[in-house]
Write a structure and sequence with these properties.
- The protein has one domain (1-133).
- It is globular, with a radius of gyration of 15 Å.
- Strands 1-2 form a two-stranded antiparallel sheet.
- The protein is built from seven helices and two strands.
- With 136 residues, the chain is mostly helical.
Length: 136
């Protein structure tokens, strides 16, 4: 069953350059979100500009969002190494990512989701259900 973790983690890694969100300013990829979050030049308020320029998050929101991004990357890494826990960690990261983005962007968040996000979420769910099984 470790092959399933590898395949689903590869699918998530392939979703990183695909658009995750469709905003009025254009499509946003996971790599772009990660880059802007890590290298925000105007502090943690500027890290959320790609979601909603009119809202700012607290430092707690920023830390939780960054933890979600880190957990997604960690889930892909563990899954590529064949670990069964990788998709579970990635799924928890997706939950944090979604919760914070929904909090910042509001109720219209579901309309902004694009193919990359759905591919990553579906791959983590499939990896969690098929690769983990009773051993999680």
């Amino acid at each position: 069953m470790r092959l399933v973790s590898l395949i689903t983690s590869l699918l998530v890694a392939l979703s990183f350059p695909l658009p995750w969100l469709r905003l009025s300013s254009g499509d946003v990829t996971f790599l772009y979100i990660l880059d802007k979050t890590i290298t925000a030049s105007n502090g943690f308020e500027g890290a959320f500009w790609w979601l909603n320029p009119n809202s700012t998050g607290s430092i707690f929101t920023y830390v939780v969002f960054f933890a979600g991004l880190f957990m997604i990357l960690l889930g892909v890494f563990f899954g590529l190494l064949g670990g069964r826990l990788g998709p579970g960690v990635g799924l928890a990261g997706m939950l944090l990512f979604t919760t914070v983005a929904w909090y910042i962007y509001g109720g219209g968040f579901l309309e902004t989701l694009s193919v990359g996000y759905l591919l990553a979420l579906g791959s983590f769910v499939a990896g969690f259900l098929l690769a983990g099984g009773k051993y999680l």
